[in-house]
């Protein structure tokens, strides 16, 4: 174990791996590998650079008794039991804001891809059907539609801004209404779904929002409805979503996140009107580099005793 007391858990790209090596982190591929380190080595760990969806609870934290910082690579920290960390004086940091644009861009792109059937249109051209004179069937207009954003946080706000530029009638649900006079607040997810045709989920994951997009919400969205999810798979009742799509009670979906990633329910792949993405909302070179910098900046601040940049507890 390096004497810096830093371990990096997870799969990092080459640039991040080099930068982590430079600050003296010991890299291990998974949480299980970190837990398998000898007790004497785990006892020296002061800071963890974390990049994994594996759950960290109190029992895991107890395996690192000298831990003071858990620096998460990602804005969403639903895999981490923050209350358990706080109870053990472990600070938790994340990587907010630097990824807002990319995630919002992907959400808008997925919606456009679903509505204009761009995946099917691409296949139509490649297969030679267009060249043979077969027209591609007409599809659905996106500009001007009624859209709902479930969770008007940092990313939700960026999505709403982009969709407003598509001349959409923007509605939202958040626990409280915001200073956004041009956009309409609703007092429940179902009321929001009732008012719109397209619903974009941008709320946090975790126990409090589990299945917040319930069967009731999907029914309220209705047979012309399209659901976009870039939040976490846990926020949508996936069984209800699959039933609604298969039964024609929802027009389509565009999903970047799933309940059981990356081994998603095979029923999704059989659905023609569903766009599937491999949880790649923030996955551009630029943004991943910024996330890595922020993760390491928190570790460096912690080791120097400075104020953490993006603390969540
Ligand atoms: N697909 C991707 O690659 C990707 C990338 C980044 C973030 N995300 C997800 O997007 C989420 C949102 O990120 P953000 O930076 O906009 O976060 P944020 O904290 O700024 O916004 C989250 C929204 O959820 C709401 N919220 C928080 N706790 C809630 C609760 N208990 N009940 C109901 N609503 C609650 C907040 O009020 C806010 O509207 C992340 O937590 C993460 O899960 C996904
Ligand atoms: O929360 C995030 O930042 C993304 O989902 C990457 O994990």
TrEMBL record:
<keyword id="KW-0521">NADP</keyword>
<dbReference type="InterPro" id="IPR006140">
    <property type="entry name" value="D-isomer_DH_NAD-bd"/>
</dbReference>
<keyword id="KW-0520">NAD</keyword>
<dbReference type="GO" id="GO:0030267">
    <property type="term" value="F:glyoxylate reductase (NADPH) activity"/>
</dbReference>
<dbReference type="GO" id="GO:0008465">
    <property type="term" value="F:hydroxypyruvate reductase (NADH) activity"/>
</dbReference>
<dbReference type="Pfam" id="PF02826">
    <property type="entry name" value="2-Hacid_dh_C"/>
</dbReference>
<dbReference type="InterPro" id="IPR050223">
    <property type="entry name" value="D-isomer_2-hydroxyacid_DH"/>
</dbReference>
<dbReference type="GO" id="GO:0005829">
    <property type="term" value="C:cytosol"/>
</dbReference>
<protein>
    <submittedName>
        <fullName>Glycerate dehydrogenase</fullName>
        <ecNumber>1.1.1.29</ecNumber>
    </submittedName>
</protein>
<dbReference type="InterPro" id="IPR036291">
    <property type="entry name" value="NAD(P)-bd_dom_sf"/>
</dbReference>
<comment type="similarity">
    <text>Belongs to the D-isomer specific 2-hydroxyacid dehydrogenase family.</text>
</comment>
<feature type="domain" description="D-isomer specific 2-hydroxyacid dehydrogenase NAD-binding">
    <location>
        <begin position="108"/>
        <end position="281"/>
    </location>
</feature>
<feature type="domain" description="D-isomer specific 2-hydroxyacid dehydrogenase catalytic">
    <location>
        <begin position="42"/>
        <end position="313"/>
    </location>
</feature>
<dbReference type="GO" id="GO:0051287">
    <property type="term" value="F:NAD binding"/>
</dbReference>
<dbReference type="InterPro" id="IPR006139">
    <property type="entry name" value="D-isomer_2_OHA_DH_cat_dom"/>
</dbReference>
<keyword id="KW-0560">Oxidoreductase</keyword>
<dbReference type="Pfam" id="PF00389">
    <property type="entry name" value="2-Hacid_dh"/>
</dbReference>
<dbReference type="InterPro" id="IPR029752">
    <property type="entry name" value="D-isomer_DH_CS1"/>
</dbReference>
């Amino acid at each position: 174990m390096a004497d810096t007391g830093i371990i990096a858990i997870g799969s990092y790209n080459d640039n991040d791996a080099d930068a982590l090596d430079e600050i003296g982190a010991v890299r291990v591929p998974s949480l299980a590998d970190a837990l398998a380190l000898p007790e004497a080595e785990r006892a020296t760990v002061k800071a963890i650079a974390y990049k994994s969806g594996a759950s960290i609870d109190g029992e895991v934290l107890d395996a690192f008794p000298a831990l003071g910082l858990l620096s998460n690579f990602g804005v969403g920290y639903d895999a981490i039991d923050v209350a358990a960390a706080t109870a053990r004086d472990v600070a938790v940091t994340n990587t907010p804001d630097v990824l807002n644009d990319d995630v919002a861009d992907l959400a808008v792109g997925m919606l456009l891809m679903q509505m204009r059937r761009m995946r099917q249109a691409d296949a139509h051209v490649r297969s030679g059907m267009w060249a043979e004179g077969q027209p591609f069937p007409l599809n659905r207009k996106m500009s001007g539609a009624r859209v709902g954003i479930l969770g008007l946080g940092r990313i939700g706000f960026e999505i709403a801004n982009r969709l407003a530029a598509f001349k959409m009638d923007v509605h939202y649900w958040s626990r409280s209404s915001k200073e956004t006079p041009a956009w309409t607040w609703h007092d429940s997810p179902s009321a929001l779904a009732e008012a719109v045709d397209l619903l974009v989920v941008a709320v946090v994951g975790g126990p409090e929002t589990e299945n917040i997009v319930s069967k009731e919400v999907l029914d309220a969205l209705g047979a012309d409805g399209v659901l976009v999810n870039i939040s976490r798979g846990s926020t949508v009742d996936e069984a209800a979503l699959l039933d609604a799509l298969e039964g024609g009670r929802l027009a389509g979906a565009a999903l970047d996140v799933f309940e059981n990633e990356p081994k998603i329910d095979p029923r999704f792949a059989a659905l023609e009107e569903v766009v599937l993405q491999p949880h790649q909302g923030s996955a551009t070179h630029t943004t991943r580099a910024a996330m890595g910098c922020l993760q390491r900046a928190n570790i460096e601040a912690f080791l120097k005793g400075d104020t953490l940049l993006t603390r969540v507890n």
